[in-house]
Amino acid sequence: MSLNIGRIIGIPVRIHYTLWLVLLLIAWSLAEGYMPQHYPGLGATTYWAIGIVSAIILFVSVFLHELSHSYIAKKNGLPIKRITLFFFGGVSEMSEEPKDPALEVRMAAAGPLTSFLIAIVLGAFWVLTMLVNGPVPVIATLYYAALLNGVLGAFNLIPAFPLDGGRVLRGSLWNRSKNLLSATANATRVSEVISLLMMAVGLFFVVFGDFVNGLWIIFLGWFIRSGAETSLRQTRLTESLSGVRVGDIMTRDLLSVSPDASVQQLVSDYFLVHPHGGYPVVSNGKLLGVVTMSSVRSIPREKREVERVSQAMVPYERTITVSPATSATDALQLMAKNGVGRLVVMDGDKIAGMVTRGDLMKTMKARQELGA
Ligand SMILES: [Zn+2]
After folding, report:
1. Cα(313)–Cα(214) distance, rounded to whole angstroms?
2. Ligand 1 centroid to 93 CA: how many Å?
3. Which residue from 33, 198, 343, 350 has the highest number of Cβ atoms inside 10 Å of its Cβ?
4. How do the domains of the chain map onto residue ranges?
5. How far is the CA of 65 from the centre of ligand 1 (A)?
């Protein structure tokens, strides 16, 4: 569905196929429809050149819009996993939610502001080119590109998830109530109303003659609606973990492995007979690291007899630990941020247990099903 195109300021960037489609559509509709109508007598090659250049400008604009979000996030210490560019802008995948509402508002507002700024700069060039009687194709391209950026900024300001305006709204509600969950729920409700309105307006257009624009509006409404539903589901999921501490759900009686055991022993005495996917490596009651199925997989089969667990394990310095008092939601975020499926629970310098993503999921499911 998406194509990787490289990294910028350390963040991988992908292009979603909808953006390719829209770029093609824009180049084609400008070359064959809009430009010949508004600027007649320029010739097919010129129209296509305008179409292609405009599509490229749109791509760069979407990219700059998205980069501005990521830049603010990175500057404030929020890690961004990757950027995916869609036809309407993009989505920066954060591995954490912003910690305070002011940052969320600033981050979300950066995108539309960038688009408006680009629109103003291109618009100024457009006016200038007209004043000096510049070439018509340049005037046409500048006008259209400025217009597109204005539309991009305005569309993203609609106060509905997952658009930037929805995040600005949630940040403001969050700031007022100091409660992220209720702010998300309320912002989601607004998004649902907006999406239903958009679909109704789209249907009206379709029925009363403007078929293409009507379909577009219905599509956008549907898109907002599904985004709002996803975010509500996520909020409910997190809500179902509220109040749960790691100590309540962790596995207590842990089997531990000696650092001197061979990897082969670890496979035959632990992984093949017990249901766990990872074990703490302990010597004299001290945690040395964690060994998981993937640590075993990294050792070639023929070397498993000679390699020791101490060589295969994730060492203590890179082991992620929490305390029994850590909240379950924080544990879930820690796992996502570090790309691991289990955390060692330490009570002071004593190992208290282990908690896995599976434990957290089971708890969420049970609490949701029982309405706890
Ligand atoms: Zn944006």
Report:
1. 58
2. 12
3. 343
4. 2-240, 246-369
5. 6
Measured in Å, residue 207 CA sits from the centre of ligand 1 at: 32
Pairing of strands 314-315, 321-322: unpaired
Instruction: Kindly give the distance from the C-alpha atom of residue 99 to the centroid of ligand 1, in angstroms, as a whole number.
Output: 19
Q: How far is the CA of 106 from the centre of ligand 1 (A)?
A: 11
List the structure tokens of 301: 């089969």
Q: How far apart are CA 33 and CA 190, in angstroms?
A: 37
Rounded distance from Cα 89 to ligand 1 centre (Å):
6
Cα 165 to averaged position of ligand 1 atoms, centre (Å): 8
Tokens of 350: 């004593």
| Ligand 1 centroid distance, CA of 104 (Å) | 12
What distances in angstroms separate CA 273 from CA 255, 268, 276, 341, one per listed residue?
A: 12, 7, 9, 20
246-369 CATH, one of 3.90.1150.10, 3.90.226.10, 3.30.365.10, 3.10.580.10: 3.10.580.10
**pLDDT per residue over 227-259, tens digit each?**
777 777 777 777 778 788 988 888 887 888 899
In the structure, what pLDDT confidence band is assigned to residue 197 with cuts at 50, 70 and 90? Answer: very high
Q: How far is the CA of 149 from the centre of ligand 1 (A)?
A: 12
Phi, psi of 314 (to 5 degrees): -80, 115
Q: What is the DSSP string of 351-369?
A: EEEEEEHHHHHHHHHHHHH
How confident is residue 89, by pLDDT bands cut at 50, 70 and 90?
low
pLDDT tens digit sequence for 41-88: 888 888 888 888 988 888 888 888 888 888 888 888 777 777 777 766
Distance 206 CA to ligand 1 centre (A): 28
Provide the pLDDT for residue 110.
92
CA of 156 to the centre of ligand 1 (A): 6
Ligand 1 centroid–CA 291 distance in Å is 41
- Residue with tokens 């101490």, as numbered in its chain: 310
The enclosing H or E element of 77 equals none
**% residues pLDDT > 70 (the chain):** 95
Q: How far is the CA of 248 from the centre of ligand 1 (A)?
A: 39
